Amino acid sequence: MLWPVNGSSAYPAGGAATWDVHGDPDEPLRPDYGGACLTEVVPTLLRLDALREADALPAWLPAPLAGAAQVVLLVLDGLGARSLAEHRSATPVMSSCASTTITSVAPTTTAAALTSLTTGRAPADHGVLGYRLRVGGEVLSVLRWTTGAGDARTEIRPRAFQPVEPFLGRRVPVVSHAAFAGSGFSQAHLGAPDLYPWRVSSSIAVFVQRALASGAPFVYAYYDGIDKVAHTEGLGECYEAELAAVDRLVEDLANRLPAGCGLAVTSDHGQVETDSPPLGLDPGLMEDVTGLSGEGRFRWLHVRDGAAERVAAAARELYGGVAWVRTLAEIDDAGWFGRPLSDAFRRRVGDVALVARGAVSFADPADPGEVRLRSRHGSLTPAEELVPLLGVLP
Predict the structure, then answer these.
(1) Domain boundaries of the chain, sorted by first residue
(2) Which CATH fold topology does 38-272+380-392 show?
(3) Contact in structure between 214 and 265 (CB atoms under 8 Å)
């Protein structure tokens, strides 16, 4: 089993986040909403002064950040806590930082996790519940903000779709890839920030330094290279080379920080290598299924009225050895999204979920790009759910 060191499935208020990153749970590893979780990182960093004054800094916050006058949050897409622990030789800088381990959200996918990070809210509050979501009669690809009809920014307005103000309503500098500027997902999870768009990763530290020089108390920076390499090349030699390059990026960034400025480093999710190709769903099971959404390791089945229990039972017979099969009602009861979904948000997901726990994924013929992925995420295994939180104060 995988548990916090205090033997409970949730930490007490102010409790330290010390997870066993190598454990294999018998049950899904639920996000620690309200505790050592991505949802708490940005609100904590934005309120450092008030928390210090009230002597209320959470124990999961790396100690060097407690005294920071300015803070940079660097988000490394796709870096799981397990992976960082297993690649210490390639990451001497990050491995020497003060660190804790926190949870991502459900599902462990970029769309849901980054939105929870920037808004400080669980997926049940912001409604970005995965990579591909049902909107009306279409499926919205959240990262591309497209449906089968193409660009959906006019029909599905990002700031209406995701109603929570990012960064507690503050306008902050964001250092992110120029390719993402103005995208639907950027609008949904970042709002309208002061954007510093980089085109090559060597510019990240330069732009962060410029944002800090403007007097900003908090700077958000995002890099997606680890995730890209893992998806395309797996977790082998190319992945380790990318980790080494990112370690140098972290060192460069730390060396450019002014006195009193802390650097926090975290991620949205980890990765697992999976069998290829994805599993096709049994034709008999699909007789009661009207559509699919989600992603390979958190596949939603949309079913005919009244068929959820029947489909779930059949899915457990077929896939229970490699997946947790849950109805939406069971997921709501377990609090995977933070609380039960509103009726509006329930319509964005399916009725039965196949949540992979083995090295598998579940195919969706409408999303053929997934077939080419070497490593994936989305499920609630430790490798996907646990992410590092590092802290440096030069």
Answers:
(1) 38-272+380-392, 285-376
(2) Alkaline Phosphatase, subunit A (3.40.720)
(3) no
Reduced 3-state DSSP string for 149-176: CEECCCCCCHHHHCCCCHHHHCCCEEEE
Query: Contacts by 311-316 with C-beta closer than 8 Å and gap 24+?
Result: 311/285, 311/351, 311/352, 312/352, 314/282, 314/284, 314/285, 315/285, 315/352, 315/354
Kindly state the tokens that stand for 46. Answer: 């934005």
Tell me if residue 320 falls in helix, strand or coil: coil
For 158-198, what is each residue's pLDDT tens digit? 999 999 999 999 999 999 999 999 999 999 999 999 999 99
Question: pLDDT tens for residues 322-353?
Answer: 999 999 999 999 999 999 999 999 999 999 99
From the options 3.30.70.20, 3.30.1360.180, 3.40.50.2300, 2.40.50.140, give the CATH code of 285-376: 3.30.1360.180
- Report residue 157's pLDDT band, with 50, 70 and 90 as the boundaries: very high
pLDDT of residue 21: 65
Q: Two tokens at 44?
A: 């904590």
Q: What's the farthest any 2 CA atoms get from each other in the chain?
A: 64
- Cβ partners under 8 Å of residue 234, min gap 6: 273, 374, 375
Kindly give the residue spans of alpha helices, DSSP state H, lying in 257-299. Answer: none
pLDDT of 68-111, one tens digit each? 999 999 999 999 999 999 999 999 999 999 999 999 999 999 99
Amino acid at position 130, single letter: G
pLDDT averaged over the chain?
A: 93
Residues in contact with 113: Cβ distance below 8 Å, sequence separation at least 6, in sequence order:
38, 104, 105, 268, 269
